[in-house]
Write a structure and sequence with these properties.
By secondary structure, this protein is of the alpha/beta class. Among the domains are: 2-96, Gyrase A, domain 2, CATH 3.30.1360; 174-253, no CATH class; 432-551, Isoleucyl-tRNA Synthetase, Domain 1 (Orthogonal Bundle). Helix content is 50%, strand content 12%. The chain contains 19 helices and 15 strands. Strands 7-6-5-11-12 form a five-stranded parallel β-sheet, sandwiched between helices. Helix 7 packs across helix 8 and helix 17 (474-496) packs antiparallel against helix 18 (501-519). 36% of the residues are buried. It binds one RNA strand through helix 2, helix 6, strand 10, helix 16 and helix 17.
Length: 559
RNA sequence: GCGCCCAUAGCUCAAUUGGAUAGAGCGUUGGACUACGAAUCCAAAGGUCGCAGGUUCGAAUCCUGCUGGGCGCACCA
């Protein structure tokens, strides 16, 4: 499939070369040739804007140039039916009839692999996502980040990148200590209800009580007699691991997996934060303030101001370990780093990028993807998510309510940098309004057709059994064309890091399938036609299934 | 005050990264089940792409200014 696009591109390039040699086009270098598949089939199977791009340099009209290009074109394989110059100067290629048939054969041959490519050429990328603090359960915003990250990894993987998925655990700072304190007070309250619960520096959520009860069940009154600091330290670890297990099981529920959970604590234990600071000191990038605080001069690399690494009281800031973590990632030698953050952290991008430079890499080695907020709606009204009160709907609850397929699809229905309203009522309707079912139904419908055919004794066709001349309806041509664009959609999603393109493609494909189905019978009395049409919808089924797989959404055979 | 993101049909959002007549879903109106699944389809109405300039063969997309909204600007985490 791509070989053909490549040969067309080469034919165009050759044409330019020939025109340069005989002096009709006076160019020093060969321009990049761009070939697109137009949205309207009346505009050809492929189109190039080449002539318009050249117009400026040559100071000649695009129409004129287009004509020259076409005149110099040779077509040894006889692929092209005709070329037209259209509109402001597009060169439109109309290929020999049987071209789109190749798409169907390609899908048959590749099966599950249709849509995969070698775009990334094996280059490696570390994707860090979710990285939620282990001080509370995941909420719906984490869910969005998890799904976007997961699907992005799947897309990159399918596009020939070597992907490593990582979850960074902030288990070394004040907040886990606060978690420990919170558990400590709740724990004591179990034994003595008069113990007051502080109003600051603690987590008020219900889940803290659960942790305290677990401590009491396992260790009885063991911690009551321990010195407060020691107890809190132990309970921090305990609480942290409980929360982390919860997070893991939520992710499991969503079928989101990681290659590695990287703990902040390990950075300190292995002296990596300290080593990192030494390196920065050697590079002469640190300043010491009067009160003893240590500051990194990120402002030399485009940041607004310098950033503190060690506070006046001797504590490390989170920024210090963040640097060490990214240094660790870079030292593993990936070609790229992708971080997926909540959009409220966008202010951290400049300082993080400056770090990448400080460590000797191009700032673009790190790409930060921002995930905008999710508004949970019920009965058309936003569900209040008070962090302070600890009152919120957890991701786990949403998953139990709407199911994984729906949750995933909904998270991917918008570009990740725009706000998302998650309508619980819409997500639960098993009807026409729900886009997930629309797509899944298309798949189930095709499966049903095959069952029907089987019952009537019609075999599942292979391309050798098919007379492709029988697939000549506009709807059929249109379907073939659209199936042919799928690999480019996946590549585009990989290059732009935009997973939402896949569900949009799926909805369009499903729409075309439904329209075709409604207008024309797949199974009739004409056996040859049966085989041809079954072969076509079989290809549609393969592509729907592949795309749904990419999203981690199931492709049901019955609904 | 400074910085980042957003503004497209009544609502929610797309637009092949600068391409041809800006497209879907929902909602509205009107139609289609004695044949493979109506969880479906067909048709109509609906637009000053926030406003004003600029860049060029060509702008929703790029540059500048303005308006309106979101979010950031810690020796917080």
């Amino acid at each position: 499939m791509f070989d053909l696009k490549d040969t067309l591109t080469e034919m165009l390039a050759d044409s330019i070369d020939r025109a340069r040699e005989d002096g009709t086009l006076q160019l020093n270098k060969r321009p990049p040739v761009q070939l697109d598949i137009p949205k309207d089939s009346l505009l050809g199977d492929f189109a190039s804007n080449l002539a318009m791009v050249l117009a400026r340099d040559l100071k000649r009209s695009p129409l004129d140039i287009a004509k020259v290009v076409i005149d110099h074109l040779t077509d040894p394989e006889g692929l092209i039916d005709r070329c037209e110059v259209a509109g402001p100067g597009f060169i439109n290629f109309f290929l020999k009839e049987d071209y789109w048939v190749r798409v169907l054969k390609d899908i048959e041959a590749k099966g599950d692999a249709y849509g995969k490519s070698a775009l990334g050429k094996g280059s490696s990328v570390i994707v860090e996502f979710v990285s939620a603090n282990p001080t509370g359960p995941l909420h719906i915003g984490h869910g969005r980040g998890a799904v976007v990250g997961d699907v992005l990894c799947r897309i990159l993987d399918a596009s020939g990148y070597q992907v490593s998925r990582e979850f960074y655990v902030n288990d070394a700072g004040k907040q886990v200590k606060d978690l420990g304190r919170s558990v400590w007070f709740r724990y004591r309250q179990i034994f003595d209800s008069t113990v007051p619960f502080p109003s600051e520096g603690v987590y008020p959520g219900e889940y803290v009580l659960d942790i305290a009860r677990q401590v009491q069940e396992r260790y009885r009154d063991f911690y009551l007699s321990m010195a407060e600091d020691d107890a809190i330290s132990k309970l921090s670890d305990f609480g942290c691991s409980v929360m982390l297990n919860g997070i893991r099981s939520d992710l499991e529920k969503m079928d989101v997996r990681f290659d590695r959970f990287f703990t902040e604590k390990s950075l300190y234990e292995q002296g990596k934060v300290q080593a990192c600071i030494s390196e920065l000191k050697e590079k002469n990038l640190l300043l010491e303030e009067e009160n003893g605080a240590l500051v990194l001069r990120t402002s030399l690399f485009g940041d607004d101001k310098d950033r503190v690494l060690i506070k006046g009281n001797g504590d490390y800031t989170y920024f210090a370990s963040d640097i060490a973590y990214h240094r660790d990632k870079l030292e593993r030698g990936p070609d790229r780093l992708i971080d997926i953050w909540g959009a409220d952290h966008h202010g951290y991008i400049p300082r993080m990028k400056s770090i990448i430079q400080v460590l000797g890499h191009d700032a673009d080695t790190l790409k930060v993807l921002l995930i905008q907020m999710v508004n949970l709606l019920r009965d058309g009204k936003p569900v209040r998510m008070g962090k302070r009160t600890g009152e919120f709907v957890t991701l786990s609850e949403v998953l139990d309510e709407v199911g994984n397929d729906v949750a995933r699809f909904f998270f991917l229905l918008r570009r990740s940098d725009s706000h998302l309203d998650f309508d619980l009522d819409l997500a639960k309707t098993e009807s026409n309004e729900n886009p997930v079912y629309y797509v899944q139904y298309a798949h189930a419908r095709i499966c049903s057709i095959f069952r029907q055919a089987w019952d009537k004794g019609i075999p599942v066709p292979a391309s050798n059994d098919v007379n492709f001349d029988l697939l000549s309806l506009p709807e059929e041509k249109d379907l073939m064309r659209f199936l042919g664009t799928y690999p480019e959609v996946v590549e585009g999603a990989a290059m732009a890091l935009e997973p939402h393109r896949i569900p949009f493609y799926l909805q369009e494909l499903a729409a075309r399938l439904h329209a075709y189905y409604f207008k024309h019978r797949i199974i009739s009395e004409e056996q040859d036609k049966n085989l041809a049409r079954l072969f076509l919808v079989g290809a549609v089924r393969t592509v729907i299934r592949n795309a749904l797989n990419l999203l981690g959404v199931s492709a049901p055979e019955k609904m």
